[in-house]
Amino acid sequence: MILTLTANPAIDRNVTVDKLVFEDRAYILSTRESAGGRGINASCVVHSFGGGTLAIAVCGGKSGRLLEEFLGCCAFPCELVRVKNEIRTNITIADKNGLAVKLNEVGPSLSPAEVARLEKAVRARLKEASWLMLCGSLPPGVPVDFYTRLIHAAEKENVRTLLDTDGEALESALEAGPTCVAPNQQEAERLLHRALLTRNHFQEAVERIRGMGARSVVLSLGARGALGAFEDGSVWEAVPPRVDALCPIGAGDALAAAYVWAFREKPIPQEALRWGVAAGTASTLLPGVSFASLDQTREILSRVILRPLSGTA
Fold it and tell me: In this structure, are strands 88-95 and 100-103 parallel, antiparallel, or unpaired?
């Protein structure tokens, strides 16, 4: 199965408005709440594609009880690690033109005992897993090397790892040599302390990040698709078709999940990259934070252009 970890889950409050502009009023068209967090989102995608998955997440407070209620309606299994403090609520505001604003709380502070229980829960499931996806930010109280320890633990069990995080947690865990790291453009810019504007910049970025320890790198570029730098030294670009996006929030989660799912089905990284871009693109066509099905992803897949940039014969 594909095991996902969401150390800092949330209740996602998704608000759709008629228009999103500064210094003018907008009218709310709909409001929806759902279980949120990159790992939970990844498990949603993997399950909808027909893959086996288990989502591990922390859970605490009134928001935690609501999270448990939402997850109880999901068709994939979840394992919740109880914590004392309230999990966070994140707000996404999107309009009909595809503009979106995402506002995230920091998350609950975890005690050392709670961190230890969370780590124990993940380690206990590694023997059942083919991949471990480490997704999202670390809440206060969790050591910056938390993901690093789990990558080493997974490696001992011959479990591949995908790292999808930001900041110090990303920089620290790269040294552990994850199978794949999947930053978006903004996360890569923060990691490398430079702006990324051109295709040459993107190619240099994935090669530099791979040089920092990751075996492979998948750089998500939104409507421009993604670049992948792989273990054989090759760099590939996957370019999606032009689409009228409704909401781009969550597309990166779909990309990472579809990449892992496709790689497990057939370990050809450039094809997995194409699947990831197709899933991310197809998900932007849905209202709010929603994820494309396997059939919806297949409709986009044939229109994703895959081309080598370097390192191929």
Answer: antiparallel
